[in-house]
């Protein structure tokens, strides 16, 4: 096996190579004046499993090099080509919300499935699509962040109370709470725009003496997490610890969360970010070993779901 770092993926590639006990190399890119990109693989891949590594935040700039690298690896004799993308892009547009919209989660799935043999990711945003096998036709494995988040909580927060900022976060919050042996609840959210969000407590349930822990799978603009933080502080429930699996937010958002009352802001290292505190590489490497050995079946996508028809 050889690991090839996609743009921005060098830290992940190095960590995977250590766990897999193999070599790694950065994908060489050259940007031409006309806007095209040249791709070169410097590692010897003939007869090897070529493992492309890199998160797919900012996916439009990263996807073409990924596809070119996958094709080049196969042409250079790789026995199979896999992808470790801890953050998998284009999962939130999983239905046609307005007439004429592209259902990009399915389009992106077809694009990657045509070039790769297997895919490893961390907690993709699954809502109306309930598993990657519904839209991806290659072997996939989802690595859950919940066990590692629960382990972090057990080591750093004496009596946590898990809180999800909206109904969609319930699946992650419930799982982490169960593993951490903590109570949990979710807030009710009203979204009026991309940066206009309101939240409220869904019940009168309180857990005095416990530390509130706000948990969500993705924090992007941070408006929902910020509104939830302010709500908890105003209600006298304490300064929350804010945790996300995928940190898509910038330094300004992190500053606003801390100024809004959060005691700490942290994330898994699925996307390189100053808030990274929970390391995923060992579990990702374990999934790679299983998929590269063919221990997961190749899946066929199902038909269109009712929301798209």
Order of helices and strands: EHEEEEHEHEEHEHEEEHEHEEH
Strand order of the largest sheet: 11-10-9-12-13-14-15
Distance between the termini: 42 Å
Number of helices: 8
Strand percentage lies at 25-35%
CATH topology of the largest domain: Rossmann fold
Tell me, rounded to a whole number, the average pLDDT. 88
Query: What shape does the CA trace take?
Result: elongated
Q: What's the quick description here?
A:
The chain is of the alpha/beta class. The chain has helices spanning 10-20, 59-75, 104-113, 146-156, 170-180, 223-234, 251-259, 281-292, and strands at 2-5, 23-26, 28-31, 37-40, 49-53, 80-84, 118-122, 139-143, 160-164, 184-193, 196-201, 211-219, 241-247, 264-268, 276-278. The strands form 3 sheets. The chain has a 7-stranded mixed sheet, with helices on both faces. The protein has a 6-stranded parallel sheet with strand order 2-1-5-6-7-8, with helices on both faces. A two-stranded antiparallel ribbon has the order 3-4.
Give the tags:
alpha/beta; disordered C terminus; 2 domains; seven-stranded mixed beta sheet; six-stranded parallel beta sheet; 15 strands; Rossmann fold
């Amino acid at each position: 096996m050889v690991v090839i770092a996609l743009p921005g993926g060098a830290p992940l590639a190095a960590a995977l190579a250590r766990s897999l006990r193999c070599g790694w190399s950065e994908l060489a890119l050259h940007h031409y004046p006309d806007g095209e990109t040249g791709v070169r693989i410097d590692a010897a891949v003939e007869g090897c499993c070529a493992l492309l590594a890199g998160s797919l935040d900012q996916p439009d700039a990263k996807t073409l090099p990924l596809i070119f690298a996958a094709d080049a690896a196969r042409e250079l004799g790789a026995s199979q080509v896999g992808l470790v993308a801890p953050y998998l892009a284009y999962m939130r547009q999983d239905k046609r919300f307005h007439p004429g919209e592209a259902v990009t989660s399915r389009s992106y799935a077809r694009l990657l499935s045509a070039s790769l043999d297997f895919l490893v990711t961390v907690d993709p945003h699954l809502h109306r699509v309930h598993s990657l096998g519904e839209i991806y036709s290659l072997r996939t494995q989802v690595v859950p962040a919940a066990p590692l988040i629960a382990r972090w909580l057990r080591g750093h927060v004496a009596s946590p109370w898990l809180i999800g900022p909206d109904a969609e976060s319930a699946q992650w919050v419930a799982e982490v709470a169960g593993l951490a042996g903590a109570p949990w609840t979710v807030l009710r959210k009203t979204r009026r725009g991309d940066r206009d969000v309101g939240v409220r407590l869904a019940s009168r349930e309180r857990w005095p003496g416990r530390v509130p822990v706000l948990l969500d799978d993705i924090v992007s603009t941070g408006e929902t997490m910020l509104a939830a933080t302010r709500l908890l502080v105003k209600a006298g429930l304490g300064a929350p610890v804010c945790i996300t699996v995928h940190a898509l937010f910038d330094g300004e958002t992190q500053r606003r969360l801390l100024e809004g009352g959060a005691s700490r802001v942290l994330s898994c290292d699925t996307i390189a970010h100053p808030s990274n505190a929970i390391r995923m590489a060992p579990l990702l490497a374990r999934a790679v070993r299983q998929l590269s050995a063919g221990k997961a079946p190749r899946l066929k996508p199902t038909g269109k779901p009712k929301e798209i028809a």
